[in-house]
Design a protein that fits this description.
Elements lengths: L1 H17 L2 H7 L18 H14 L6 E5 H7 L4 H7 L9 E2 L5 H8 L9 H5 L1 H9 L1 E3 L7 E3 L12 H4 E10 L2 E12 L4 H19 L3 H33 L1
Antiparallel strand pairs: 1-2, 3-4, 5-6
């Protein structure tokens, strides 16, 4: 029994360490405040999801697919008007089709070194925070083949496809405890959006990817409130009934 408790304790310690800044710094880029950035998603915000869907179709769908999401389901859930949904369809696609990219795996490997992954479950598998940080931490790096790098995924094969919106950021670091630590990004060539607008663009896109990973999530959460209220009421009634039955026994 003592050994079992020791193993459980060791597991808890390892779990805590795995989320420590030191371990995160060793596994993903430079340490720094960027590791705590969060998008603050709200999947019940239909307007945000609509903007995110447009962002995805405009900047991501050329290489990435959402193979578990149908255009028709997205249009219904996100309340996208019929004419706008028609405009969002990939060439040759129908409303009942899954959201698949026209880029073949062979072309993806030839152009980027590896085929771009399907993003249906990226927010569920990696977490929305990770996707947000990934899209926010690109910077210029002449040592890479595509001229950019990423703090969340160093050496990523994906180029900075949003550079026209964000601009050209360079990485600035400071020494802290003898280690290079992220300080800030400096935009040396402005993009089409301000920093605030780009942040909203990324947040909406991540919000949409979270929806794509579980389209029923918003409904499940709203239904869960009513389920908890019902269980609370049922528990109260059951307790009153139990007290009534035991009154005669005592």
């Amino acid at each position: 029994m003592r050994n079992a408790f020791a193993l459980i304790a060791a597991g808890l310690v390892l779990s805590a360490l795995s989320f420590s800044p030191a371990v995160r710094a060793a596994t993903a880029g430079l340490p720094g405040a960027w590791q705590d950035w969060q998008p603050g998603n709200d999947i019940s915000n239909t307007a945000s999801l609509q903007r995110g869907a447009g962002n995805f179709m405009g900047y991501c769908a050329g290489c990435h697919s959402l193979k578990y999401v149908r255009y028709s389901r997205m249009g219904t859930d996100l309340k996208i008007p019929e004419d706008q949904l028609e405009e969002m369809l990939s060439p040759g696609s129908k409303k009942g089709d899954y959201m698949l990219t026209k880029l073949t795996a062979a072309d993806g490997e030839a152009w980027f070194g590896k085929a771009p992954p399907d993003l249906s479950l990226i927010a569920r598998s990696k977490g929305s925070d990770y996707v947000y940080r990934f899209l926010k931490t690109y910077y210029l790096d002449e040592k890479t083949t595509n001229g950019t790098n990423n703090l969340a995924l160093p050496g990523t094969a994906m180029p900075h496809v949003l550079s026209s919106l964000q601009g050209a950021p360079i990485l600035k670091t400071v020494k802290k405890d003898g280690l290079d630590t992220f300080d800030s990004f400096e935009i040396v060539e402005p993009g089409q959006l301000t920093a605030e607008q780009y942040d909203e663009f990324v947040r909406d896109t991540v919000n949409f990817l979270e929806y794509a990973g579980e389209p029923v999530k918003a409904y499940r959460q709203s239904l869960g409130i009513w389920v908890m209220l019902f269980l609370s009421l049922f528990t109260a009634l059951a307790w009153l009934l139990k007290r009534e039955y035991w009154r005669d026994v005592k």
